[in-house]
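Progress narrative, work stream C.
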Amino acid sequence: MRVLHACSELFPLLKTGGLADVIGSLPGAQIAAGADVRLLLPGFPALLAGIPDTVIVTEVNTFAGRVTLRYGTYNNVGVYLIDAPHLYDRSGSPYHDSSQLDYGDNYKRFGLLGWIACELACGIDFYWQAEVVHGHDWHAGLAGAYLATKGYPARFVFTVHNLAYQGLFSPHHLDELQLPWHFMQPEGLEFYGQISYLKAGLYYAHKITAVSPTYAQEITRPEFGFGMEHLLSQRRDWGKLEGILNGVDYNTWSPQKDALLPQSYHAKKLSGKAENKAQLQSATGLSITPDVPLFCVVSRLSDQKGLDLLLEALPTLLDEGCQLMLLGSGDADLQHAYLAMAERHPQQIAVKIGYDENLAHRIIGAADVIVIPSRFEPCGLTQLYGLKYGTLPLVRHTGGLADTVVDCSLENLADKTATGFVFRDCQASELSNAMRRVFALWAEPVKWKRVQRQAMSMDFSWDIAAKKYLQMYSQLE
């Protein structure tokens, strides 16, 4: 089976979020399971530099100008790159400028991604032709519309990584995008008078997947559906919506193999984790003590991630003498608030604004608890990393967090299935109560270590997800 993933990021070459991690791991796992899998990405500078030994497949005139389609390999996966400097040769984010303003030609930059994906199903590469096009998030949504205009030369699967980002553009671009005007209706691309690339992906897909089973159910409800809940409920009722949980690359995220950790460790010998904690405390100015739990956050700073709730609940943590190490960036008010808290409590709170992959590994390998109080979370990856590293997740019951973390309730502790701490209501008081349960378990070291070992034994490898996707492809009508 020949599968083409159309996407915008690839770990570790270009990453702004969890999508890059998925694309960096899922295709390789599918190849290992027997599929013929390739990627298609815009030719952003980081990707062209990271995959230098490419050959020209073709040069073609498109609605977005003349472009070169290149082909190379990365980590043994074939990769097509759309080489179009007039569209993609820009510094910084793939999506916006240094002022955080979306590029005005994003409709064209990502419309072209869908157009080329369709052409790879029609035989633009004489030697390889996609049978399944798998689009990821709004950036690849138009692939479904273009495939529909050609009578679906390939089946189209669309994965929702985060429904909040929809790719909305003016309908006056429709002619330039070379899409028929009859597509511009509610039963098509139209979303409140605009073209929605996300809706294109949802509407024209033979199968929609969400990145966790719970999120697949949540997005059919108004509070999570961002206006798409009716369409998604319909697709669910037709059997065309499925949740497949993301996985983890345990070659990258394993405390036994992680070269970025000062000390490696495993479930039967956790002394290395204690040494990592002491080193991180020293490096960040926190008081060096093994006696209090070190909480951590590795996240985008936003209300979606519930980090305003954590800010409100911080007195509960501070009053117990506990510590917090935060790594992330995002909302300016949240950044300033956390920096101010760190300045007032330098021995208990350390904050690093920005993203540092090496530091993220060191934090997760050192901390005792990773806090993810999200209002919604399609899948989440950091809680999966936390589980493997024995850094117990403290999460809200939503999306993939609900699917992967088992609460330390009395019954779950008794039957030895507990792996973390879960609260339900999106309130700071509920988060504070969950923190108090952390303190209670911390006071019983034998039980704490037992939960750690159970967490570290969980298997969320990509092999599982890859096989589910391949089975789903084979059943497409």
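Work stream C, second folded protein:
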Amino acid sequence: MTVVTIHYAKTHLSRLLAEVEAGGEVVIARGKTPIGRLVPVAPTRPKRVFGSMQGQIAVDEAFFEPLPDEELALWEGGDA
């Protein structure tokens, strides 16, 4: 983490932004008092679209049937 004064930050903003782009963090201080922080922006996740897999997958009635005892035991961590 780098700590710089406001004057330095105004003069060297491009250099400080390059440091932040590389994953660093810069604290801007007025004198010796920290007042702000430059950090990388967290990437935004795309919104989920309801029904985006429509027509690409199918679930038949067998999906809802109980598992055989042997397979159920494997899921529960027991021996078959």
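The beta strands are 2-5, 26-30, 33-38. No further action is required on this item.
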